[in-house]
């Protein structure tokens, strides 16, 4: 049954990722949509796992469905990899490096922010 919940959550995460990419003009030179989605996903996963799942006392199956299914399909490392290679292949080396650095350090910063927001909410 857990596989069904992960699949449903994954479907919803993938649909949301697609809708956001359409709204943020995924055809632009710089992959703003994927960057935004991955940064938001980094924040959400850290915040959800450190606060919401514990406070709401969700079942491990539901937590897994949300974290692995929804957030896992919402964010995308493969798109980051392909878009980075395309930037380099098109001669946009500077944008490629900016994208990698923003993705890596931005993801870490957003995860850190998610954990800090969680701590602030728990202390208040």
TrEMBL record:
GO CC field: plasma membrane
Family: Belongs to the fluoride channel Fluc/FEX (TC 1.A.43) family.
Name of the protein in question: Fluoride-specific ion channel FluC
InterPro entries: FluC (IPR003691)
Cross-referenced PANTHER family: FLUORIDE EXPORT PROTEIN 1-RELATED
Main localization of the protein described in the UniProt heading: membrane
Description of how activity is regulated: Na(+) is not transported, but it plays an essential structural role and its presence is essential for fluoride channel function.
Function: Fluoride-specific ion channel. Important for reducing fluoride concentration in the cell, thus reducing its toxicity.
Subcellular location: Cell membrane
UniProt KW Cell membrane keyword: yes
Membrane topology: Multi-pass membrane protein
Encoding gene (name): fluC
Binding positions for Na(+) per the UniProt entry: 72, 75
Swiss-Prot/TrEMBL keywords: Cell membrane, Ion channel, Ion transport, Membrane, Metal-binding, Sodium, Transmembrane, Transmembrane helix, Transport
Any one of the GO BP annotations: cellular detoxification of fluoride
Catalysed transformations (reactions): fluoride(in) = fluoride(out)
GO molecular function: fluoride channel activity; metal ion binding
Transmembrane segment boundaries: 5-26, 32-50, 62-82, 94-115
Pfam family name, one: CRCB
């Amino acid at each position: 049954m857990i596989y069904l919940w992960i699949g449903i959550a994954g479907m919803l995460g993938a649909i949301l990722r697609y809708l956001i990419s359409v709204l943020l003009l995924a055809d632009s030179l710089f992959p703003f949509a994927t960057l935004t989605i991955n940064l938001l996903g980094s924040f959400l996963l850290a915040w959800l796992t450190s606060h919401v799942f514990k406070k709401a006392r969700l079942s491990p199956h539901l937590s897994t469905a949300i974290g692995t299914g929804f957030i896992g399909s919402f964010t995308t490392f493969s798109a980051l990899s392909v878009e980075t290679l395309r930037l380099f292949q098109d001669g946009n080396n500077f944008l490629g490096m900016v994208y990698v650095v923003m993705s890596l350090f931005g993801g870490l910063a957003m995860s850190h922010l998610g954990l800090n927001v969680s701590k602030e909410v728990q202390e208040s």
